[in-house]
Write a structure and sequence with these properties.
With 305 residues, the protein is an all-alpha fold. It contains 13 helices and 2 strands. A two-stranded antiparallel ribbon has the order 1-2. A hairpin with a 2-residue loop joins strand 1 and strand 2.
Length: 305
């Protein structure tokens, strides 16, 4: 346990100490935030307002702010939990490049402990960044339209934890196969540019073609984004119902912002979303452990040979 603790402290400190790695991990969330505040936020607000006006409904500015803010911040956190995890986990690859990992394996530290140290440090580093971003998002929501209960906030934080566990596990498996600075740059670029689209953060999945929607419905990150949106927007939809909004209109809005996710036309319930995200994360973690154990066995066989 002392060895694991020392490894976690070492990896966490190196991540926050490496300004290049730290700020690189924030590029995608910052770009997304700027994109939303300068362009997409106004687009969502105008489309939401025009849809309500066309239906003859009037709502307060606070309700519009709560709806738009919930959609924007759920997108931001959905991307942040995965892209930050990938970038902070590049430390594992950098240790291969610099030879630090070879030095660590020569020390009396098991490969399992070493792998767990990377994963735990990655999880803690990403979680600190994401929880800090979540605090700012909640603070901003309190200014523009607060419709959350204590339960909503607790579930929102639980979603962030689960998505961070998922992002850390996914990045650990992919980064396990990387061994050069060029590969780090390539994977970082692909993840930063592509993940926001396939998880429905840059644009609601409901706006995609039917075929693409079915493909994306197989990806666990999609359900993580939907969970965040469900918990940030639950109070907004409840307030709409109390103000006399027709249920069909509320459901249409839920569909449009991906609170309702459909798997081949079958609606996926919240409990099923949790099951998909948790089970996928466990499978990825087990896969990461197996890869490290197999690598250790292969290395020992190579030395004997």
């Amino acid at each position: 346990m002392n060895k694991l603790t020392a490894l976690v402290k070492r990896n966490t400190k190196l991540y926050f100490k490496d300004k290049g790695m730290f700020f690189t991990s924030l590029i995608t969330p910052v770009i997304l935030l700027v994109l939303y505040t300068t362009f997409l936020g106004n687009v969502y607000e105008d489309s939401f307002r025009s849809a309500l006006e066309a239906a003859g409904a009037t709502v307060s500015e606070a309700l519009i702010g709560g709806c738009v803010g919930g959609e924007l911040f759920s997108s931001l956190l959905a991307v942040c939990c995965v892209t930050v995890a990938f970038c902070s986990n590049f430390l594992m690859v950098q240790d291969k490049v610099t030879g630090a990992r070879r030095d660590l394996t020569m020390a009396p530290v098991g490969r399992g402990t070493l792998a767990l140290g990377y994963y735990t440090a990655n999880l803690l580093s990403t979680l600190m960044v994401c929880l800090g971003a979540a605090a700012l998002c909640l603070l901003y929501l309190s200014k523009i339209g607060w419709y959350l209960t204590g339960t909503d906030v607790a579930l929102f934080l639980l979603d962030i934890l689960l998505l961070t566990l998922f992002g850390s596990a996914l990045s650990s498996i992919i980064n396990f196969f990387l061994s050069s600075q060029g590969q780090i740059s390539a994977v970082g670029t692909i993840v930063s540019a592509g993940y926001g689209f396939i998880c429905g953060a840059y644009m609601p999945i409901s706006n995609f073609s039917k075929g693409l929607q079915k493909v994306i419905s197989f990806l666990p990150g999609t359900y993580g984004t939907s969970l965040l949106r469900n918990h940030l927007l639950r109070g907004v939809f409840e307030e709409m119902g109390e103000q006399g909004f027709p249920m069909q209109m509320v459901e249409a809005i839920r569909d449009s912002v991906d609170c309702n996710i459909y798997f081949f036309d079958a609606k996926v319930e919240t409990g099923t979303m949790y099951l998909i995200l948790i089970s996928t994360t466990l499978v990825l973690i087990c896969g990461y452990i197996v890869l490290n154990l197999l690598a250790g066995k292969n290395r020992r066989k190579h030395r004997k040979g």
